[in-house]
Design a protein that fits this description.
Length: about 250
């Protein structure tokens, strides 16, 4: 059961920029089923790999068109943002402001889709930071206004049978500092955190986040995501930037 104050993991963003089609083809070749190409009201484009309680978003723009979202145009290709789910964007916004974080106004986001043969508008509210809490990693919160349009059974039947995002691994120059920030951001109970100076494991309601120390880094980074068939199976696929071959 999810404790009311805990934030589940929502989705991992992989930046494809104008190579979104190439990125999508790589995952199709590996046996994943992707949602149709869609376009946001803010000008970006995406395709999703839907999983049991989360998803992977392939995010970019249409080739030949100037990108309209600076956070996409300026981000390196590959593993990018960690997005956490909220049921109340306004409440999350207020809590983050109260916690001393630099937060942008709540943003309305939408894209077109289909549901049971009808054209529909998928709607979200996002809470983003003007200054990232953990330098080097883009983090934000997402409230799904129309979740039934997102988690459709037709998009959960992958040929490779991989349906669960088991864990995400980060590298940080300061593990203790990164854990403290994530713990505060996500209201993680201390009993769900195992920590040392070199390595930490944070257990969220639907995923584990691993943080490993890398003294050569100036800023933290997302290293890889581990995908399995279900929550109890071992990892079957590791997705990292070398795997993506962008």
């Amino acid at each position: 059961m999810i404790h009311p104050q805990e934030y589940p993991f929502d989705h991992l963003v992989i930046i494809g920029r104008d190579q979104l089609g190439k990125l999508a083809q790589q995952f199709l070749t590996q046996g994943f089923l992707l949602t149709p190409l869609a376009h946001h009201n803010l000008g970006s484009s995406n395709q999703l790999i839907m999983l049991d309680s989360s998803y992977i978003e392939l995010l970019g723009c249409e080739p030949g068109k100037p990108p309209q979202r600076a956070e996409i145009a300026n981000q390196p290709l590959g593993l990018d943002a960690l997005v956490f789910r909220t049921n109340d964007a306004e409440k999350t916004y207020q809590e983050l402001v109260k916690g001393g974080f630099s937060v942008n106004p709540i943003q309305d986001l939408s894209r077109e889709s289909e549901y049971k043969g009808n054209s529909v508008l998928v709607q979200f509210k996002t809470v983003r930071f003007s200054v990232q809490p953990i330098p080097g990693i883009r983090i934000y919160f997402c409230e799904h206004i129309t979740p039934e349009y997102v988690w459709q059974d037709q998009w959960l039947k992958h040929l490779n049978q991989l349906g669960h995002l088991k864990s995400i691994s980060l590298a940080s120059p300061n593990v203790l500092e990164s854990v403290n920030v994530l713990g505060q951001l996500l209201n993680i109970d201390k009993k769900h955190i195992v920590i040392s100076e070199e390595l930490a494991q944070l257990q969220l309601p639907n995923i584990q986040i691993n943080i490993q120390k890398d003294g050569n880094l100036i800023e933290s980074r997302v290293m890889c995501a581990q995908v399995s068939k279900n929550s109890i199976d071992p990892v079957d696929l590791i997705i990292n930037n070398q795997h993506l071959n962008l």
